[in-house]
Amino acid sequence: MDVLRLLMLLTPACLPQEAAQGPKPPIQNVRMDPERGRLTWELNARASKILCTKDPDQQQWAQDTYCSYQTLSLCNVTKYTVQVHSPPFSTWILFPERDEQPETAPADLSCWVHDVDFMSCRWAVGRAAPSDTQYRLYWKDRSRYRECGHYQTDSGGRHVGCRFPGISQYPRIFVVMVNGTSQLSSISCRDYLADLYEMEKLSPPSITAKCNKSSSFMEWKMFSHFNKYFQYQLQVHKSPGTSITENLANPGNYMVKMRVRSDGNVHSEWSPWGAPQRFRCDSDEERPARILRTSLLVAAGTLAVALLGLLLCKRFSLMRRLFPPIPRVREPVCDPVLGGELLVLEAGREDCPVVEVQALEET
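and the corresponding structure tokens:
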């Protein structure tokens, strides 16, 4: 009897259905809601400390039956894992599920902020993209996508870049997506998580300089909508071939270059060196000598002008004395008394006076 009872207890047909299938998991039906940016599930029992992990290392604690994501990739296959601390349980899903034509998607998509208020994105044509492929770029503002309005094209007329003005009006973090169309094949998309703080490439500022009796004071102002703290490097050259110096006491004539990077932003790199700027800053010993040289040059110039004017006047007067103007003959006049002709002379252009000549009888 005891053996029969034991056999009956071990027979699966005699076990309750729930016992035969095992206990239900604490959560089930895990899925992604792309419109709301939520990873959701259903609870079958009380569960504590539910952790969501986004491939591979982004983690957050769940809010009851979901985890929220501000940015969600619609193009790159990502693994999402849900872990329950008590009772111990783990499950995962892929979203999107698969990428059927990955080599048709745009390659090497990258974006960067530059010139304070602009963002540019570049990409390459996918290796397997048909010749008639055309790409379009969109950025997601909360719940909707907006298309780029300033494309750059390659020699075949395909979009390979985009430029955004007025980037200060955009949210700091958003998704940039490039998808494509073709009559010959389906085209996979590619998206990019844009963090304007991390992707800004700073431009070096312009420098102004003021001098006192012994030193030069340089000033500049840095502009950025996203980075607030900066590191600067100066190159100061007092003459060709000299090394970098930090002491600007009595600098005289010098040339300055500057570059900058964000302080605290681990993704920030040094900007290119700015254009060289030249400044003159005389020391106390040089200033009187320069003033004296300037005064002597002015005096010498004035004297030279005066001498030149005097020389020209004397030369003109001497020429008039050596070569007086010659009167011109106007017309002959007959004199019946003398039986001869008198010539009436007309003054020349120089208005020289004409002397009257009288003919006297010989005795």
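(Above: one complete record from the training split.) The first helix runs from residue 2 to 10.
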